[in-house]
Amino acid sequence: MSSVLGSACLGAYTFCARQHGQEECDSKGLPLTPYSINVAGRFQSLLELDHGGLCAYLDIKRIRNERLLVVSEWYEDSVEKHMQSQQTNVVDSLRRLAHQVLEALAYLNRHNIVHHCLAPDNILFTPQGDVKLHNYGLYHMTDCGRAVRFPIGSPRHLAPETIVKSSPSLSPKVSVCVDHSHWCIRIFMILVSSSLKVDVWSLGVILLELYLGTQLYPDLCITSSLSPLFKRILLLAQNFHRQCY
Questions:
Q1: Which residues pair with 61 in a beta bridge?
Q2: pTM of the model
Q3: Is-annotated flag, keyword NADP (predicted)?
Q4: How far apart are the first and last CA of the chain?
Q5: Can you spell out the DSSP letters for 158-211?
Q6: pLDDT by residue (tens digit) across 12-49?
Q7: Residue 73: strand pairing partners
Q8: Is the CB of residue 122 less than 8 Å from the CB of residue 139?
Q9: Residue-range domains of the chain with CATH
Q10: How far apart are CA 46 and CA 138, in angstroms?
Q11: How far apart (Å, rounded) are the C-alpha atoms in residues 215 and 41?
Q12: How far apart are CA 227 and CA 230, in angstroms?
């Protein structure tokens, strides 16, 4: 949903926060604070962000049944549209794109915010061709995804360790793949999954797709089996480790 406002638009999206069980209470026997209230509270810090490479957040509204409505700045043009139209991306334009995205990510990092759902449809362009990151606050306002029941991010672009962390059932498969080195993967997951590095991974995948002119794993979706993807990534990591050591 959007309404034209000058060169920018107003964009809005909605989602449901997690609901507490009817019998859940705190240590004093009092009802727990609804997750939607916690989300709205964490949203307030996003209103203070001010950077040319970020779509500004404007407001959040709590609706019935733990549903929230988020309103922010939005633009129609995006990296995703460029990929769909198969527009040529020369190296210089990719460098400019990478530079502007990294500047915005560095600003978020200084404010302890991880985008976590960086994808072609969240990298927007102004009419002047400048980058504007969109939806960068969802992971933050939901307390790293704890306040919702859906995964945050695009599987094709998420760093592997973030998918493992959000999907405990995948952990044993990863451990088997890396054998005795599984502890290294787990430590790496703890150190990286909530840092700027996961966004750098996502940006690298996006730039590679743009350079190649095709999507990596186009049929991969959130309901797909991710095991083949993990096996390929971990095999590459093992080969790299053998060559280096």
A1: 69
A2: 0.76
A3: no
A4: 53
A5: S-HHHHHHH-GGGHHHHHHHHGGGHHHHHHHHHHHTTSHHHHHHHHHHHHHHHH
A6: 999 999 988 766 776 666 778 899 999 999 999 999 99
A7: 10
A8: no
A9: 2-244 (1.10.510.10)
A10: 10
A11: 37
A12: 5
